[in-house]
Amino acid sequence: MFQGAYSSQLLEEAVNQFASLPGIGRRTALRLALHILDEPEENVMRFTEAFSSLKRNIHVCGKCFMISDNEICPICDDRTRDRSTICVVENIRDVLSIENTGQYRGMYHILGGIISPIDGIGPSDLHIRELTERVKDGAVREVILALSTSMEGETTSYYLYKQISAFPVNVTTIARGVGFGDDLEYADELTLGKSIVNRHPFNTI
Hints:
- The chain has 205 residues and is α/β, with parallel strands linked by helices.
- The chain folds into 2 domains: 9-57, RecR Domain 1 (Helicase, Ruva Protein, domain 3, Orthogonal Bundle), CATH 1.10.8; 67-204, 3-Layer(aba) Sandwich (Dna Topoisomerase Vi A Subunit, Chain: A, domain 2).
- The protein is built from 8 helices and 7 strands; from the N terminus they run αααββαβαβαβαβαβ.
- It has helices spanning 9-19, 26-38, 41-57, 74-77, 92-101, 128-136, 151-164, 189-197; strands spanning 59-60, 67-68, 82-89, 106-110, 142-145, 170-173, 200-201.
- The strands form 2 sheets. The protein has a 5-stranded mixed beta sheet. The protein has a two-stranded antiparallel ribbon with strand order 1-2.
- β3, α5 (92-101) and β4 form a beta-alpha-beta unit.
- α5 (92-101) crosses α8.
- The chain is elongated.
- The chain starts with 8 loop residues before the first helix and ends with a strand.
- The relative contact order is 0.10.
């Protein structure tokens, strides 16, 4: 007799693991598990080793907190980029979204989230002190606040502005091509690119 909904506990466990991923329902998880089962063993080994190696060997950039194969990410290590501009974002996905627009050639700073008291996330839980350290040496001329336009994102942007406005730096924010409440990763590349290019001073909004 079958155990549960599947003929195999091994299959069910594989489905459970796929279904634990964001945006993967159980039907899709079953299709993925059966696809893996049909693959040659060497392909499956390469698949599992890729994720195992990612977890074991990935680094977090010591400057901007982007993920990288090395201690310093390729963006921070690229001498052709504008080091006088820092774009502040919530997470890694936002960096990838902005890079895909091809409209920005400065540096980044990943906060690791946004201030959200209801979720127990305060300023000390984010990479705000490190941003302040990067700004205070005087080499940075502009900080772009490219956070989500939700209430939490706006609160975080205001907090950051208060923290760095005392330094000789121009604080700007992305234009409102990105609608209120939107996350950057879901904005199309054209809209996001124009929002970066048409940024404006933060203290005028």
